[in-house]
């Protein structure tokens, strides 16, 4: 560990939230030499991991995630954090991007070759079966524009409008751009900012074959967060679960402590609030909610993700993952094969539907039925198989919606309140809401906190 920067050794840091932003902030502080006994994390839930958690079904003996998460090869800070915590084996990257795509009775695939830079996409796009030849050429023509997106100019328009302005048909948008973009941004092309979409495609798809590889978790998400926290605790960081912060204590524009549920006040000279944007607003003293930095957060809205975990009575799926255009676009994972559960191999699938507003009003039986027939369309073996269980997991507050113009609402780590820093996937990371964005935000908040001269007098 490096020596702590001058002036911060004796100042305590309180971190609110043990999601990946909070874990990353704590780890970054330690890595910069902050003594562990000066870091306390308060977490409302009984477990760490925030929006990436797991739960057990005692009856089935299976562990579910709140949603199947994936990574891309470009998620280097998350990978680095896992390595430093000794849990890098928690996911594996495909050697090369390879996702079979089912659409209207036919299969195509999103794929990549080991070619320099954006050229890695060329062979795959030229043969992508779900586009007509002219649509493929147009897709290729637009790809170079992803390399240098004018982020400022494009934040106000939707990705869908930008794609149409650049010669993409609605058919190509649905079968290519929206299929990938919705999974990455958790919003459909017409709902999300062109700037963030282009930047996300640049980083995760166009930049190179290494960055575009799909990362598939081989362990339940909750285990990773639990191991990360155990590691931090082992180093001496104090973590208090089931401890919600109800209010930030601020005096003369300086944070002085946090009020905990039950009324106790924990004095704090510096606080990193690594909670969702609306949770941050709720814990601000009322006088601060109209402050320019925080008032903007009211314009951020949530986008839901629906997951279904389907257990068949026999194997129905051979590959690790595929995408389907059924139900407006969904990704299907061979969960048993990823987690290494031979008894459920090919039988236990998880289905992820991002930006799933359309399905909000449907009852559980109707949803389960639609998902089963969508799976049966793509998987012949599923047609005769019996479904033993179908567990639906709704996450209405899965991620913020990166709507056009939303980048100006995303906060920087340093706030107008002295000693208060913010982290979370919704902050101004330049990334879509993701594990990678959360980890980067934690690093940025720790950096900002260490750059902040203490003690905070006058
Ligand atoms: C269904 C689903 C699928 C997803 N798929 C992917 C994916 O494939 N790839 C990907 O990269 N990302 C994915 N994400 C997004 C990813 O999970 C999030 O971006 C990331 O986990 C956010 O981390 P965070 O630390 O910023 O916030 P959170 O995980 O929300 O952590 C905030 C923490 O603060 C705690 N907290 C809140 N209020 C208080 C309080 N008052 N006092 C104390 N503690 C408090 C919460 O309990 C929580 O633990 C998905 C999310 C969902 C829900």
TrEMBL record:
The gene is hpnE. NCBIfam families: HpnE. GO terms for molecular function: oxidoreductase activity. InterPro entries: Amino_oxidase, FAD/NAD-bd_sf, SQase_HpnE, Zeta_carotene_desat/Oxidored. Keywords: Oxidoreductase. PANTHER family: BLR3003 PROTEIN (PTHR42923:SF47), PROTOPORPHYRINOGEN OXIDASE (PTHR42923). This is Hydroxysqualene dehydroxylase HpnE. Residues 21-448 form the Amine oxidase domain. Its EC number is 1.17.8.1. It comes from Alicyclobacillus fastidiosus.
């Amino acid at each position: 560990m490096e020596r702590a920067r001058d002036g911060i050794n004796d100042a305590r840091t309180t971190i609110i939230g043990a999601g990946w932003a909070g874990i990353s902030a704590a780890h970054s502080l330690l890595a910069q030499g902050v003594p562990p006994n000066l870091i306390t994390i308060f977490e409302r839930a009984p477990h760490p991991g925030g929006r990436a958690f797991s739960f057990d079904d005692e009856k089935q003996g299976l562990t579910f995630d709140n949603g199947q998460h994936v990574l891309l090869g470009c998620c280097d800070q998350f990978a680095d954090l896992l390595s430093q915590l000794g849990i890098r084996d928690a996911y594996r990257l495909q050697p090369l991007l390879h996702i079979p795509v089912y659409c209207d009775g036919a299969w195509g695939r999103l794929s990549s070759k080991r070619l320099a830079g954006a050229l890695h996409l060329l062979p795959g796009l030229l043969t992508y079966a779900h586009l007509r030849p002219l649509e493929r050429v147009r897709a290729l023509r637009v790809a170079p524009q992803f390399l240098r997106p004018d982020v400022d100019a494009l934040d106000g328009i939707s990705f869908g409008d930008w794609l149409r302005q650049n010669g993409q048909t609605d058919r190509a948008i649905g079968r290519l751009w929206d299929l990938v973009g919705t999974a990455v941004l958790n919003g459909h092309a017409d709902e999300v900012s062109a700037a963030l979409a282009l930047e996300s495609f640049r980083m995760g798809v166009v930049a190179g074959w290494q960055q575009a590889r799909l990362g598939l978790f081989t362990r339940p998400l909750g285990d990773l967060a639990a191991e990360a926290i155990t590691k931090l605790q082992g180093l001496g960081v104090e973590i208090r679960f089931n401890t919600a912060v109800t209010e930030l204590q601020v005096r003369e524009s300086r944070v002085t402590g946090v009020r905990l549920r039950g009324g106790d006040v924990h004095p704090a000279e510096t606080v990193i609030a690594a909670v969702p944007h609306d949770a941050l607003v709720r814990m601000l003293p009322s006088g601060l909610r109209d402050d320019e930095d925080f008032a903007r957060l009211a314009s951020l809205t949530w986008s839901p993700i629906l997951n279904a975990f389907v257990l068949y009575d026999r194997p129905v799926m051979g590959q690790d993952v595929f995408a389907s255009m059924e139900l407006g676009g969904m990704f299907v994972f061979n969960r048993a094969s990823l987690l290494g559960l031979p008894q459920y191999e090919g039988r236990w699938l998880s289905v992820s539907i991002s930006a799933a507003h359309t399905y909000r009003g449907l009852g559980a039986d109707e949803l389960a039925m639609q998902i089963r027939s969508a799976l049966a369309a793509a998987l012949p073996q599923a047609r005769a198989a019996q479904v033993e269980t179908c567990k639906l997991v709704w996450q209405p507050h899965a991620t913020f919606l990166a709507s056009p113009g939303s980048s100006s609402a995303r906060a920087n780590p340093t706030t107008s309140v002295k000693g208060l820093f913010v982290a979370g996937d919704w902050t101004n990371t330049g990334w879509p809401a993701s594990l990678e964005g959360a980890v980067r935000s934690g690093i940025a908040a720790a950096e900002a906190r260490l750059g902040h001269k203490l003690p905070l007098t006058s």
